[in-house]
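Records of this kind hold a single protein each, on a pair of labelled lines. With that in mind, the following record should read easily:
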Amino acid sequence: MGSDFGRLGFRLIPALHEQGGAASAALRDLDVLVEFRNAVSHGNESRLAAIVADGSIKATLHSYRRFRKLISGLVVTLDQVGADRLSAVLAVAPPW
């Protein structure tokens, strides 16, 4: 995500970290989720086992719901950060 927004001259990840502890924690958890997804998609069984063994993620309904809630919250923060950035760049009121 950071590199995509970087092409527009916007340092997304630092802007999200500036939102506080919850956003920073969500970004760390998102990294775990992406790493888990990559291990699944590439069939890397040893990496999957390591991620599960260290307790970062579990293949349970509770874990799924936790990560879904985390992503939903991060999207809300991302939306606000994006609106603030557009407002500043365009010198207009926040677009939403």
User: Anything to note?
Assistant: The two ends are 21 Å apart (CA to CA).
